[in-house]
Write a structure and sequence with these properties.
Layout lengths: L1 E5 L3 E8 L6 E4 L5 E6 L4 H10 L1 H16 L3 E2 L1 H26 L5 E5 L6 E3 L4 E5 L7 H13 L8 H10 L4 H8 L6 E2 L2
Parallel strand pairs: 2-4, 5-9, 6-8
Antiparallel strand pairs: 1-2, 3-4, 7-8
Length: about 190
């Protein structure tokens, strides 16, 4: 990996990858670029590719700036407090709700995911973001029940929604609407 400070594109993290089949360009939330390219591609060719995408990069940066301008921020200290609270809250409540509703899961992981509140693997491993601790209690439980429902239906089919809606006493749509008003915060450096 190499960090290149480009005169017009700014900071580019250049990553030559054995697994890459083509050049891939990602604009990060902070506006920096990650350029991943195959072994057989030179760095200069990869950077030329990024230069050819300058207009797209700028519009993506603008879109990200507008989107994340409304996001809350938290400090590293607050993050650690959230992590501690999540470790105390999430495991007993996942166990309680699983037992109460007859769900079985294989493992539980508390993550610091920024893109989703939770997930369920194909092997019924549950992952819950520590950022659920910023939500009201009923939405925390809703997220846990959402992921536990995936242990029965590994999709978002009508059967999945019927099961989830039943476990939340007919409030799935209401809770989903309410959840959309919350954002996972950005961590300040």
């Amino acid at each position: 990996m190499a960090i290149v400070e480009h005169k017009t594109l700014g900071i580019i993290e250049c990553v030559r990858s054995v697994r890459a089949r083509s050049i891939r360009l990602v604009v990060r939330r902070d506006g920096t670029l990650r350029l991943t390219y195959p072994l057989f591609t030179s760095r200069s060719r990869a950077i030329s590719f990024a230069e050819s995408k300058a207009e797209w990069i700028e519009s993506t940066r603008q879109r990200l700036m507008e989107r994340f301008a409304s996001y809350p921020t938290i400090s590293r200290k607050e993050l650690e407090q959230l992590r501690k609270a999540a470790r105390q809250y999430i495991p007993p409540n996942v166990e309680r709700l699983a037992t109460q509703h007859g769900f079985k899961y294989s493992s539980l992981r508390i993550s610091s995911a920024h893109t989703r509140w939770g997930s369920c693997s194909g092997r019924n491993g549950i992952s819950i973001s520590l950022f659920v601790m910023l939500l009201p209690e009923h939405l925390r439980e809703f997220i846990i029940l959402h992921e536990l429902s995936h242990t029965i239906h590994h999709n978002h089919s009508a059967a999945f929604h019927a099961l989830l809606n039943k476990t939340v006493a007919g409030n799935e749509r209401t809770y989903n609407r309410e959840l959309k008003s919350y954002r996972i915060p950005i961590i300040e450096d």
